[in-house]
Amino acid sequence: MNNRFNSVTTDYTQYQLVSLSLLRLFIGWHLLYEGMAKLSNSNWTSAAYLLDSKWIFSGVAKWMVTNPNILGFVDTLNMWGLTLIGLSLMLGLFSRWGAIAGGGLICLYYLFHPPLVGLEYSKPPEGSYLIIDKNLIEACALFVLAMFPTSHITGLDKFLQKD
After folding, report:
1. In which domain, by residue range, is 18 found?
2. Nearest residue to 88 (alpha-carbon basis) of 29, 160, 1
3. CA distance 161 to 8
4. Is 90 exceeded by the pLDDT of residue 151?
5. 163 assigned to some structural domain
């Protein structure tokens, strides 16, 4: 039985390979930078972001902020998650799983701050969004990278392959 998700293909055109690898590298850089920026700021916390949450997860967000242990765990998970996912994507090491984890994490950002009509946040968005924003686009791009992995060709995963 052939499981398409677990099989590794090498039949990309040169343009496809370069495009997908650059997308993986650029998103990896973005996530790594965000994680490192948070790790290097000893005062960083997700509390303000969570307290400004609207829609279906606002109650969960407020609960997380009111419990210092939970908030500390969420902050640590967020900082290290971004950093490790970013490294995974940039290095091409376990990048399929990094892309799935990154897509899931960014989907959570979207669900805590969705750009829906009638929802206003204390910090204005970078642009004018309606339903689709940069978080949703980046999450979708990560899920595409998970479906079309390139790290077995242009990353460290090529050294982990069984021949």
Report:
1. 14-158
2. 29
3. 10
4. yes
5. no
pLDDT of residue 5: 45
Q: What is the DSSP string of the chain?
A: ---TTT-------HHHHHHHHHHHHHHHHHHHHHHHHHHH-TT--SHHHHHT--GGGHHHHHHHHH-HHHHHHHHHHHHHHHHHHHHHHHHTSSHHHHHHHHHHHHHHHHHHS---TT---SSPPSS--BSB-HHHHHHHHHHHHHHS--HHHHSGGGGT---
High-pLDDT (> 90) share of the chain, %: 77
The C-alpha atoms of residue 144 and residue 27 are separated, in whole angstroms, by: 12
d(CA 68, CA 125): 28
Considering its fold, how many domains does the chain have in total?
Answer: 1
CA 21 to centroid of chain Cα atoms: 16
Q: Residue 30: name the closest of 157, 148, 146, 142 by CA.
A: 142
Q: Is residue 3 part of a domain?
A: no
Does residue 95 lie in a domain region? yes
Instruction: With cut-offs at 50, 70 and 90, classify the pLDDT of residue 7.
Output: low
* Domain assignment present for 110: yes
